[in-house]
Amino acid sequence: MPIELKRRAFLRGTAIAGGTAAFSGALWQRAFAEPAQPGVGPYGPLRAADANGIQLPEGFTSRVIARSMQRVPGTRYTWHPAPDGGACFPAGDGWIYVSNSEVPLVGGASAVRFDASGNVVDAYRILNGTTMNCAGGATPWGTWLSCEEYDLGIVYETYPQGGRSAVQRPALGRFTHEAAACDPVRRVVYLTEDEEDGCFYRFRPDTWGDLSSGTLEVLVGSGTGKVTWQRVPSPRVWVTPTRHQVDGAMRFNGGEGCYYTGNVCYFTTKGDGRVWAYDAATSTLALAYDDDLVTGEAPLTGVDNITGARTGDLYVAEDGGNMEINLITPDGVVTPFLRVLGHDESEITGPAFSPDGTRLYFSSQRGTSGFAGGTDGYTYEVTGPFRR
Predict the structure, then answer these.
(1) Which residues form the domain of 58?
(2) Helices (DSSP H) in the chain: which residue ranges?
(3) Which SUPFAM superfamilies does this one have (predicted)?
(4) Which residue, among 180, 178, 138, has the nearest Cα to 160 in the 3D structure?
């Protein structure tokens, strides 16, 4: 057996021995014997690129809804640079897509409003004067948590409908924030940290729906299997960084996207190409995907932002790789869903479904130029026969 295959076989055995087991969540009930493997997806192979340079399965189409530093079509609003994390919210008989801007000092977040037919009817700013707004997460009460990605980064609670100023939420900790996901059953917010030795956190607000006060905790454990939580002593003001305040805190290599559904919080770590699954009902941690544990060539690399569909499918965006969004099915199959051509120095960001599940939004942060300032960013919409 070649050295690389031996290494993967060893890692696979180690992961399974470490406690990978069936979860109570809707996803992976049948597929947690080991992490997802390549296979044929529900939508078939990717077709030739369309006019926007996007390869999609049969029956799907794409359109550009915004470009950085240009007016959003049909509005007078100029779209922000470096579009990153995003989410959709219902709005009357239409919906809103919000997007962060991952640039220093003027980052913030913007929103695009659609009518019932999917036409763009407005675009506007919902957060100003913040820095490196990377990912974030939606709350059950209809706000968007925009996360700053630097050492003293803060989570801002923003209002997609407009008309209200964003609010700092320092009780969620000051660290290199990446993404957030709300668990309405346990009434907590999960948080990822983009550091090579970062942690995975949860915030327990004193009152659900009010993030002004509460307790920040960090995941403690030694690997897959049973884990616990321990309070972070000083999350708001610190001399010792948040991630180093608790002995035994589990380390994650570059925390990225975060998504909760059916008692399971899925989160990605780009440094080791993994999708983790935390079963909140049993306090158990396992691997849903690991590019080192794939038989053959890994279709999904550079894991980053993550979202899900009503069917239990996960959609995982790539930072680099083949500039794809990959689909991971409840049966444990990982396969490309779309690929963006000609954006080789960019990354895919902000995947999010419209409230009815018929449209998928995402961005290419740096576009065809690859310029680090993100002034060539593209934001797209994909429509088609999504499983529902």
Answers:
(1) 3-383
(2) 3-17
(3) YWTD domain
(4) 138
